[in-house]
Write a structure and sequence with these properties.
There is one protein chain. With 256 residues, this protein is an alpha/beta fold. Helices cover 26% and strands 20% of the residues. A 5-stranded parallel β-sheet has the order 3-2-4-1-5, with helices on both faces. Strands 6-7-10-8-9 form a 5-stranded mixed β-sheet, with helices on both faces. The radius of gyration is 21 Å and the shape is globular.
Length: 256
């Protein structure tokens, strides 16, 4: 018996990996967080499978279902939004599985920031503008952040920021980031990326709060911040395909 932690991607069933879809379709037990994973993603579960929305369940309750499946020798598809390694709360589940001697595997999925970049039609690592992406979150009412992992510290890098769980803290995000990025720094808010009601708002650190308030977005949104989101700046071509810059797979400089 194995528990499969499956990355469901951002919400679009077509963004499931082939492996993820196959395992959901094979497991007699499927647990998914309905607040973040649409039913369409788990629609490929067997007709006779036990399919449970865990949004209202506790860790003890979900683990109890897994223990029951283990006693019956049934594999479990534990379906998480995005990629399980990012804010998936799988570490505490794995700890319990190990304590009970239950095997598990992690099946990666498309993370929200990658889906958001695709929806925005942009690259997040632009030559000489930004070459790093920082994935972080606001603590709000959830687990506190470790010391040193602050927006101010991350902002000093000038990297592209992907901020989770922060839509209700936009004023605080603006306050902390403006000194480093400037009030006119591009911001994109992507609401329920990959879902049928996906919504994209573009603005700056100074005006995005008003847009979000007008749209009445209060949850399930990713905030992207950084100069790489701008279409107005000039930047050099990458050296990867530059004829004047040979590398191991293209050792000779091509004549103009």
């Amino acid at each position: 018996m194995t528990v499969y932690f499956i990355g469901a991607g951002p919400g679009d069933p077509e963004l499931l990996t082939l492996k993820a879809a196959r395992l959901i379709g094979e497991c007699p037990v499927c647990l998914y967080a309905g607040s973040l994973v649409p039913e369409a993603v788990v629609a490929c579960a067997p007709d006779d499978a036990l399919v449970m929305d865990t949004a209202s369940m506790t860790l003890d309750e979900t683990h109890g279902v897994i223990l029951d499946a283990h006693a019956k020798g049934q594999n479990v598809a534990r379906v998480h939004s995005g990629d399980p390694s990012l804010y998936g709360a799988i570490a505490e589940q794995i700890r319990r599985l190990k304590a009970d001697g239950i095997d598990y595997q992690i099946i990666p999925g498309v993370p929200a920031y990658a889906a958001a970049a695709a929806a925005l039609g942009t690259e997040l690592t632009v030559p000489e503008v930004a070459q790093s992406i920082i994935l972080t979150r606001m603590s709000m009412k959830s687990t506190g952040m470790p010391a040193g992992e602050t927006l101010e510290n991350f902002a000093r890098s000038g990297a592209t920021l992907a901020i989770h769980l922060g839509i209700r803290a936009l004023r605080e995000i603006e306050r902390q980031l403006v000194p480093f990025y400037g009030a006119d720094c591009p911001v994109a808010v992507v609401y329920r990326v990959g879902w049928p009601d996906q919504l994209i708002l573009r603005g700056t650190l100074s005006d995005i709060h008003a847009q979000v308030r007008a749209a009445k977005i209060t949850r399930t949104a990713l905030i992207m911040v950084g100069p790489a989101l701008s279409d107005s700046h000039g930047f050099p071509d990458s050296a990867l395909y530059d004829a004047a810059k040979p590398h191991v797979l293209r050792p000779r400089v091509k004549a103009e």
